[in-house]
Amino acid sequence: xxxxxxxxxxxxxxxxxxxxxxxxxxxxxxxxxxxxxxxxxxxxxxxxxxxxxxxxxxxxxxxxxxxxxxxxxxxxxxxxxxxxxxxxxxxxxxxxxxxxxxxxxxxxxxxxxxxxxxxxxxxxxxxxxxxxxxxxxxxxxxxxxxxxxxxxxxxxxxxxxxxxxxxxxxxxxxxxxxxxxxxxxxxxxxxxxxxxxxxxxxxxxxxxxxxxxxxxxxxxxxxxxxxxxxxxxxxxxxxxxxxxxxxxxxxxxxxxxxxxxxxxx
Length: 265
Ligand SMILES: Nc1ncnc2c1ncn2[C@@H]1O[C@H](COP(=O)(O)OP(=O)(O)OP(=O)(O)O)[C@@H](O)[C@H]1O
Ligand SMILES: [Mg+2]
Hints:
There is one protein chain. The chain has helices at about 45-55, 75-80, 90-95, 100-110, 120-130, 145-155, 175-190, 205-210, 225-230, 235-245; strands at about 5-15, 20-30, 35-40, 60-65, 70, 85, 165, 195-200, 210-215, 220-225. By secondary structure, the protein is an alpha/beta fold. The chain has a single domain (about 5-245), classed as P-loop containing nucleotide triphosphate hydrolases (Rossmann fold). The strands form 2 sheets. It has a 6-stranded mixed β-sheet, with helices on both faces. Strands 2-1-4-5 form a 4-stranded antiparallel β-sheet, with helices on one face. The radius of gyration is 19 Å and the shape is globular.
C-alpha cells in the first residue's frame, strides 16, 4: 500500500536568533485512499508541513518517506508528480494570462501526456470537477472563486497523483461553495483512490472529510487520532479550546452526557 509519511520532521527558517522552528518533530502518515485532516490555528505550521510533505522544503531534521523510501532534494520527477498540492488562493497559483485549456494542458504536458491526447483529457478533468460547462478559453479572473478552485483541483488531478495535499482549499469560499467543494473532494477521492492531506483551521470541516486528524500547535502535533473520538473527547487542552470555539461542536450545557466509547478490553 502506497504511503506518504513525515518521520520526526523539523523545518526551520532563518538563522541564529532569527531562527523560527515552523515544524517541530512531527510524525504523520497517510496511505492511498485515506484522508488525514490537519487542524491548527494560524502560524501553527500546517502549510510548512504541507510543503515538507510535498518535498518543497527540506527538513532540518527527520525525513519524509514515500512508500518507505526517503525522498528530498534527490527525488525524481516521478515523486514530484505523485504528490500534488492545492492552495487556498487559486488566484495566486493559477497564471492569470492562461486560459483554462492552457492551464490544464500544461499540467498534462508536465505529466507526460501526448499533445494529441490533451484536449480529450482536459474535457475529462473538467468533467471530474463539475466544470464540464465552463468555457475552455476563459481566464481565471472570469471564473468565480469556487470555479477557480475547481480548476486548481483539476490541474492537480492532471498528474494522476497518489497523494493530494489540500491546504485551506475551502477557506476562501462562501458557505455553499465550501460544502460543494468538500463533497467534490470526497467524490473524486473515492473514484481515484488517492491519499489526501486536508489542512484547515476549521475543525468542523475536517471532521466531515477525514477519518483521522492531527492537531497542530506551535509547530508540533499535540494530538492525533480518530476524528470523531478527538472531537468528542479531546485529550489536549489546545484541542478542547479549538472545539469550544465552534459553537455547534461544543457540547451544549444541558445536553445529556455522551457515554464514553472506550473499546471493551
Ligand atoms: N518562508 C518562510 N520564512 C520564514 N518563516 C516562515 C516561512 N514560512 C513560514 N514561516 C513561519 O513559520 C511558522 C508557521 O507558518 P505556516 O505558514 O506553516 O503556518 P500555518 O499553520 O499554515 O498558518 P495559516 O493558518 O495562517 O496558513 C510561522 O511562524 C511563519 O511565520
Ligand atoms: Mg497556512
